[in-house]
Amino acid sequence: MGGYRIHEVPANSPATSDRSLTLTYCNNTNGRAIICPKMKMSQQRAKTSTRPRRRNSSALKTTQRRPRGLKTRRTILRKAVNLASLEGLEGLTIGRLASELRISKSGLFAHFGSKEDLQCAVVDAARDIFVEKVVRPAYEFHGLKRLRALCENWLSYGERKVFPGGCFFSAASLEFDDRPGRVRDQIVELMKKWLGNLEHAARDAQLAGEIKKETDVRQLAFEIQALAMGANWSSRLFRDPSAFRMVRGTILQRIDQATGSVQSRE
After folding, report:
1. Coil, strand or helix: which one is 184?
2. Within 10 Å of residue 174's Cβ, how many Cβ atoms?
3. CB-based contacts of 38: which residues, under 8 Å, 6+ apart?
4. pLDDT per residue over 25-71, tens digit each?
5. Residues 39 and 153 in one domain
């Protein structure tokens, strides 16, 4: 059988114009070297190096197949949070969300491996929005001003319907209060932190002499949260447009009682 070998071809050979290495084919039966019409090895390597890789082409096709308008994970989660605030976290599935976004289920599986993973990610996204709208602005203040700002920000957040279904965490707390698992644990942890924010602000005000020493700040935080959740409940169930206004006055009155300077508020 024949095989490829490398031969040095003289410069005066009609097969090449310079003295270089050329790929030839050797016939083993007679030992003769026949010039093969192949490129020089240096040229072959250059062509190979400039040839586009299939991997890059495949990656380009994958990028082109991404759903139009679906730019980031945040876009997906914002839609999921709004949907869950209306239909509940249990009603939120990868199939339901894919249908709402008009994309394939496999496109969402790249971000969320299961329904529970999706639910936990939605709770995290809702927390980020809550912190941005309610908690962070209040931390510009201290003591009693911070406590009042936290309350006012929460009521405004609920009244303005930052989430179309009202307060996300009020609804999620009721939905998952008796459902053990990762989602419930996450909601419990976040609600404890929120109550802790109210309590710490009240305690700082107490240490600053703005709230009476005999006031139970933990009890005060609990009452504020109970009143706020009541406003959200009345607003959603009864479609009561005055719910947040009435509760706002009650919360501020309760804080005034704790400071020892009760004032009538309209």
Report:
1. helix
2. 12
3. 22, 23, 44
4. 444 444 444 444 444 444 555 444 445 454 444 444 444 445 443 45
5. no
